[in-house]
Amino acid sequence: MKLSSLLKPGCLALAILLPASCNTAPQAAKPRVALVMKSLANEFFKTMQDGATAHQQAHAPEYELIANGIKDELDVARQVEIVEQMIARQVQAIVIAPADSKALIAVCQRAQAAGIVVINIDNKLDAAVLAERNLRIPFVGPDNRKGARLAGEALARELKPGDQVAILEGVPTAINAQQRKAGFEDAMKAAGINIVSSQSASWETAKANQVAAALLVEKPELKAVLCANDNMALGAVAAIRAAGKAGQIRVIGFDNIQAVRQLLKDGQVLATVDQHGDQLAVYGIEYALETLKNKTSPADRETKVDLITAEQTKN
User: What's the whole-model pTM score?
Assistant: First the structure.
């Protein structure tokens, strides 16, 4: 039988047999997934990017990845701009770790209105604002309050009731910062430990160093500093060393970045919390691909957190 007898007129039939020459419809292309992170100066988000890149390379036939980040944790306007750029580029999905839990909602709504799947990772978007806008954006990430409480409980075992501690918070408008502060407070209240100061250091090492240095002067009886991320823990450790109080004031962090692991072994950091940053973006990407495939919005998914101490670093 001749080939011409098998074909109906038009490109559709040709596309079945000759996709490279005729089938150029957008749906035939691999979906493009944009990963929009916070500061890539923070090792945690660099680890997140590396994990996402490795996943894409292992699943190259399935999707393309566009990874973006901002220069510092407070550059909310730049993160909004990046999302706008992804909308203009007509990506199929955006996986976002928002720098601010409220300020990114409007642009995420615009992305959804453009038919883009949006998945929220790491720092949860504000539930009340989402409800006001009648938005459903699934969240994939850890219970930050639970993780911070684990670290706080590890610290409490080393202190006694009435001891003085301070908290270095993240950006106050970020829900993960709020949750970590609450988790620290839960653990300290349960142990009868006195929180004498709680201040934001905006997730940044340099600012944490300044805040901690001032606290060491203002609160000479301070026994520990609870830091809402490891970058701030690094700043607190440096301030403690500079004050000649190494070994006298305990520090805990959150994120389990590479830079704190030797400090854990040396006893300069008592504990941190691993929220498995290398997998967080992967979980979000997989949810996005699942949503694109099944045309359904997945439910929120809680990812694991693990307490990391010097003992775990030996394994």
Answer: 0.85
